[in-house]
Amino acid sequence: MTGSSDGAGAVTATPAAGVQIPVEPPPHGLGVSLPPADAPAKTEGTFPYAADLWAEGLLWAAVLRSPHPRARILSIDTKHAVEMPGVRVVVTHEDVPGDAGHGRGTADRPVFAKDEVRHHGEPIAAVAADHPDTARLAAAAIAVEYEVLEAVTDPQLAFEAEPLHPDGNLIRHIPLRFGDADVVGEVMVEGLYRIGRQDPAPIGAEAGLAVPRPDGGVEIYTASTDPHTDRDLAAASFGLDPEQVKVVVTGVPGATADREDPGIQLALGLLALRTGCPVKLAATREESFLSHAHRHPTLLRYRHHADADGKLVKVEAQILMDAGAYADTSADALAAAVSFSCGPYVVPHAVVDGWAVRTNNPPSGHVRGEGAMQVCAAYEGQMDKLAARLGMEPDEIRLRNIMATGDLLPTGQTVTCPAPVAELLCAVKEAPLPELPKDAPEAEWLLPGGPEGAGEPGAVRRGVGYALGMVHMLGAEGTDEVSTATVKVSGSVATVICAAVETGSGFSTLARQIVQETLGVEEVHVAGVDTDQPPAGPACHGRHTWVSGGAIERAAKMVRTQLLQPLAHKFGMSTELLQINDGKITSYDGVLSTTVAEALDGKELWATAQCRPHPTEPLDDGGQGDAFVGLAFCAIRCVADVDIELGTIRVVEMTVAQDVGRVLNPRQLRARIEAGVTQGLGAALMENLRTTRGQVRHPDLTGYALPTALDAPDIRIVKLVEERDVIAPFGAKPASAVPVVTSPAAVASAVRAATGRPIGRLPIRPQAAVAQGAQQ
Predict the structure, then answer these.
(1) Could you tell me the pTM of the whole model?
(2) Which positions fall inside the Aldehyde oxidase/xanthine dehydrogenase a/b hammerhead domain (predicted)?
(3) Domains in the chain, start-ordered, CATH in brackets?
(4) Cα 567 to the chain's mean position, in Å?
């Protein structure tokens, strides 16, 4: 027998002639890097994205959108559009038979604008035609007479401006008061911070297909991340019972937010119901930028008080979030921002006011780490300022104030979950720093700006920065978190039925691993998602790992009991004395040994279960309350090279330590962390959907820069703390949101260290990274 290495340290054996080598079954179950089941389909181009769907007799849709951020609609003339050859129908607000309002959190957004448009790109009408070009031409032929109004685009002016919406301009105000508001510290630092408008920039086109049903209902095929909510919104708009509307989830090409603009689905459904034909719409990239929700631009004013030793005494903050034209999930984002405004630090006194207001800017809503990311950039900036004022190292002042299990949030809630924040910070601090680039021509690409960036090696300064971030798990403030799952086993195959949408988080892989671990069945299929199944809730805040994964585990354990009870009864023992491993059932004493398939004996076993975490409560009038089920934490050290003359920045390395509870799939977990860090890097250095008086500038991927593989730094995950949360199924915590929250603050901290500049705006502008006196 000979051996060879595969280059990764593993050795493969080549048997001699006639020698039989037993084939080891592939590893499965929790803790294993099981590959995604949909990986072959995605790599081969056969994955069923919504933009690829087709139906017999298909019509194409197009939407007319407002060119103004704010205007009064005087008239809508659809005559020329209706008369165009190939056009089947044109719909406006007059054709909406049910509730005209919709929205993920608050139903204040019209399907089509009626009397007034409130943001650039708001839908006014939709067309169905026999060709996509015809539909677009017909939409352009709709004549709308506007009276252009003065747009309110500064959220600070929204308080005194005339109402932009019947519900007013103020969506929510949270006045948080914790401890003694009159206490002051020996040392005080202030800061003003601005966070830009980050677009979720979904990889694939936002698209959908609506098909009318014989019973007068409609089926909508789309990449929804919350199909039951979308179904209920659609049914209300169409004037139908929820049972008459079915949402079928197609392949989701990644989602870091709500993914689909619900307005697309509503327009499609109306057109299908009016024409009696299937109708398809694939939004352009420009339409996506104009219509779906973005990260809330936020203005933050902070004042930190500390004693002479650097211990925090009080935090004062004002947080103003720009919700855009409609409320969406802004109330939830504001609650997270206010609750985490002091960060993972012990703060005995806090006075925080948070507001979310309507403007005529593009809509804001759920984007990964909403609320928490904005305040993390601010409170970490304050910690850097405090360290500089006291002559301390940035990591030292953080360690002096760090939060642990048993401490209180400024909302009065006790941190009962594992909070190994000090361990995380120490891990990134003690990791070796990357080497400096050599002063050689072949290393010019390592300079900020690259070899053509006109930079000089002598102007480059290296900075090292730190950031600690936190997010909440699941919904908050009394949200009823529940998911239902069914597990069936027949022969040697198991099937999971659960309406939890796979958004790229790896949940469908986790579902397979849970069943493999519990039942010992290697072949596990996860059924497609539609609204005929019981609801599982939205795919955000790590919900499906906890709630849907918990439901699947409970259902699988119920099937396991059904499988083992007859055997246990036959051999006079309890089911706890039987084990299932690799498809085999054995007893503790070795008397019983059989396979799962033999034990089933041709029967099909199934069970349905629910998982519902313990309830939370809304914040009261003082911002107090047990609003969160659990928390997750992350520490990142950023090393960045900055050309202090040009302001160009190159992030060299991001060193990450994260509180994960339990590693369920190592490869998948690391990929999620790396993706989160990279998304945060985009928010720190380049991503900002720019507007001029409410008008979106360059709504395309030329004008909106995203980080590519060339921008991504080395990401070193030096520690994953597996301190299991006892109330969470499997003890695991969400993985992708907290690095998104933490990495922008770490980048800003590193640039501060390199330049000595305050860096209060994200993304960081080149002029902000030019050191004082560097150009003199």
Answers:
(1) 0.92
(2) 44-150
(3) 51-149+206-290 (3.90.1170.50), 298-477+618-768 (3.30.365.10), 483-611 (3.30.365.10)
(4) 45
